[in-house]
Amino acid sequence: MSFVFYSNFRLFTPNLVPPKIPDGERVDFDDIHRKRMEKDLNELQALIEAHFENRKKEEEELIFLKDRIEQRRAERAEQQRIRSEREKERQARLAEERARKEEEEARKRAEEDERKKKAFSNMLHFGGYLQKTEKKSGKKQTEREKKKKILTERRKPLNIDHLNEDKLREKAKELWQTIHDLEAEKFDLQEKFKRQKYEVSLNSDINFSTALDSE
Question: Can you point out the beta strands (E) in the chain?
Answer without folding.
Answer: 5-7, 10-12
